[in-house]
Design brief:
Layout: E1 3-11, E2 17-24, E3 29-33, H1 40-55, H2 63-72, H3 80-101, H4 105-108, E4 117-125, H5 128-140, E5 145-150, E6 172-173, E7 179-182, H6 184-202, E8 207-211, H7 218-228, E9 235-237, H8 247-254, E10 259-261, H9 268-276, E11 282-283, H10 292-305, E12 309-310, H11 320-330, E13 339-340, H12 346-351, E14 357-359, E15 362-364, H13 377-380, E16 388-389, E17 392-395, E18 400-401
Parallel strand pairs: 4-5, 4-13, 5-8, 7-17, 8-9, 9-10, 10-11, 11-12
Antiparallel strand pairs: 1-2, 2-3, 4-15, 6-16, 14-15, 17-18
The structure holds D-mannonic acid and magnesium ion (MG).
Magnesium ion (MG) is lined by residues 211, 213, 237-238, 263.
Length: 403
């Protein structure tokens, strides 16, 4: 099953996506998401200039060997660009293997362990009242888990509050990042009121999640976790910036609010201590940024040994190719927790035809051979790349802070 063609497709149906398409001599094709929000062209170049020449002529069935060859053969290891590039190759090869076997990839991963993949939606609003109302809208649409994010009184903008209603897109087109202002004390005073208002309005019959988005110190995160305990959060996400892994010990000492972390991690070595010391409850690593299905399985299997559940990232800057691949893992692993699901725009769905579907608060993966997703290259070509950046965040005194 020799690799005859390797193409990197950059398209921008409202936002930039990078997709790798591998074709074998026999005409089997596979796709892999290679999107890294705000640094897309770095991955496109890594694949085009450094990986594509090494793939041509290789046996597409040798997924493990190709993974190790690209990982160890580069000498320079890990990091979001490298691991996203390797992820795209890995995902495309699993797609091909499923097609060659005539099975959906989840069958190659041991079959379905559950009927569907529980997902959570993103309710957000510029004010507390708007955010609370949005939670209700998601519950009305059958979601059993909802993340709530709200504007913070006294702050012009904050993470997670979209410009539109449904499609939250944090990157903005332009030659410079947008700059936002943050004040931790205003947020810490406000967040417990938001949780209280949501539970007051909608009760405890659904999972409530919240994303701190890396912005607190460990003791501030411990304070928020304690304050959140009466509201029974399903998880408090990214409470601190992920480099300070010891910081999660301090949080653990103060609160029983479950912790989720990992969307910015890209290898098992980034998170194995958090898992083995049981400092977190959900690991958020994804197919597209953590080395593909092959590597993500290793992370999930280690997590299972320590009762840490999966909770993969699934924002709109991860393409339907990533989501399709994620669902095949989500539905088959023993320690599945939840899958983030931000529906893509109709333009994006048209560029990436897929068979997964939303049903009764869950996503159901396709049953056709492979991953059940593709890229319409003709349509993709109509949306040229558009430079865009994630925001840069500053404190009120101008100090750069975590966004
Ligand atoms: C967020 C993302 O979905 C999440 O939990 O953290 O929206 C994240 O900000 C974006 O994926 C960054 O590109
Ligand atoms: Mg997040």
């Amino acid at each position: 099953m020799k690799i005859a063609d390797v193409r990197v497709i950059v398209t921008c149906p409202g936002r930039n996506f990078v997709t790798l398409k591998i074709t074998t001599e026999s005409g089997l094709t596979g796709v892999g998401d290679a999107t890294l929000n705000g640094r897309e062209l770095a991955v496109a170049s890594y694949l085009n200039d450094h990986v594509r020449p090494l793939l041509l002529g290789r046996d597409a069935s040798q997924i493990n060997d190709i993974w190790q060859y690209l990982y160890k053969g580069a000498y320079w290891r890990r990091g979001p660009v490298t691991m996203t590039a390797i992820a795209a190759v890995d995902t495309a090869l699993w797609d091909i293997k499923g097609k060659a076997a005539g099975m959906p990839v989840y069958q190659l991963l041991g079959g379905k362990a559950r009927e569907g993949v529980l997902v959570y939606g993103h309710a957000n609003g510029a004010t507390l009242d708007e955010a609370v109302a949005e939670v209700g809208r998601f519950l009305d649409r059958g979601y059993r888990a909802v993340r709530v994010q709200s504007g913070v009184p006294g702050l012009a903008a904050t993470y997670g509050v979209g410009k539109g209603r449904d499609f939250y897109e944090p990157a903005t087109a332009g030659t410079r990042p947008e700059e936002t202002v943050w004040a931790t004390e205003k947020y810490l005073d406000f967040a417990p009121k938001l949780f209280d208002a949501v539970r007051e309005a909608h009760g405890f019959g659904f999972h409530l999640l919240h994303d701190v988005h890396h912005r607190l110190t460990p003791i501030e995160a411990a304070r928020l976790g304690k304050a959140a305990e009466p509201y029974r959060l399903f998880w408090l996400e990214d409470p601190i910036s992920e480099e300070l892994q010891e910081g999660f010990r301090l949080i653990r000492r103060h609160t029983v609010t479950p912790i989720a972390v990992g969307e910015v991690y890209n290898s098992i070595w980034d998170c194995h201590r958090l898992i083995t010391e049981q400092l977190i409850d959900y690991i958020r690593t994804t197919v597209v940024h953590a080395g593909g299905i092959t590597h993500l399985r290793r992370i999930f299997d280690l997590a299972a040994l320590y009762h840490v559940k999966t909770g993969s990232h699934g924002a709109t800057d991860l393409s339907p190719v990533c989501m399709a691949a994620a669902l095949h893992l989500d539905i088959s692993v023993p320690n599945f927790g939840i899958q983030e699901y931000m529906p893509h725009t109709p333009e994006t769905d048209a560029v990436f035809p897929h068979s997964y579907r939303f049903e009764d608060g869950m996503l159901i993966p396709g049953d056709e051979p492979g991953l059940g997703v593709d890229i319409d290259e003709e349509l993709a070509a109509r949306y040229p790349y558009r430079q865009a950046y994630l925001p840069v965040n500053r404190l009120e005194d101008g100090t750069v802070h975590d966004w």
